[in-house]
Amino acid sequence: MLDAICLFDESNPITYSVFKFQKLDELDIEKYRQVLVCPVCAGKAYYRKASKDGKAACFGSRYHQSDCREFKPSAAKVREEQHAIEVNQLLVDSDAMIIDFSRRPSIASTQADKSKKTVVAKVTDNKPAANKHVEAKALKPEQQEAHQPASALQVEEQTQASPEKRIAKEGLEKILHSLMRGSDLASSDLWVYTDEKYRWRAKNLFVNFADAVPTDNGSPRMYWGTISHTDKEGLWLNPADSQDVGIPIEGIKADLQQRFGLDERRDFEGAGIILLGKCFWNKAKNRKIIQLWGQDLNRIFISKSEDSE
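^ that's the sequence the OP posted. Answer follows.
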């Protein structure tokens, strides 16, 4: 993508060529890069600097409309679209979903991904009276989901006396790709289990960075979106979806880079990201911080843009 529109001043949008944009001073680049959109479909865009090994600076987007002329289908993009289709089908076929945080990123081909079937588990519909009471009890919004114990849908062998429920099991890679490609997951009423104890309605669990709001009791959410850039030291991730949100990675930076093949600052730019984390205000209450839950790398996934390959 050679051009992008800057909406820093929405009353006076400016179209930049990548050649013109990269000549701006560093402060202007950092200021404008989070408000770029595709000039054709208005999908959120990113700017990636030239790499040390000679890759040219470029604009890109993970949010192109399928009919946008800037959208160039590739194996990776086809796989992402397929993930969205599979998750939408999951919403129809399943009664709940377990997030498998231990599932490693897939390196299979698109064809293998298409043939991959959703893992389901058989569970009984029996619910202890105590759990029924919890479901009926009026809870505060931030408590309501976290107080739905997984034991209410305890996995066990199917019996003739109780109907079975289908529980899908998916990893963060497919979940993130489906959200980025417009699946209905983030607006659905599907029960989603983040561990053996807690379950949430999907619409209350998956939060785009643009909609992130600190919770009163530090209750976690699954935050997702794309990365605009890191700070110069590489200790903070700045989402493209919101200018007042930061994700600290000090202490896990090296492991994060190794796990997801993020060799330089450029590799973070335009990458998709999803993490289980808590959102809270900084001391000045002018910036929201989203901290990875327990600093557990299994609870974060970064999908590096193919343009960085």
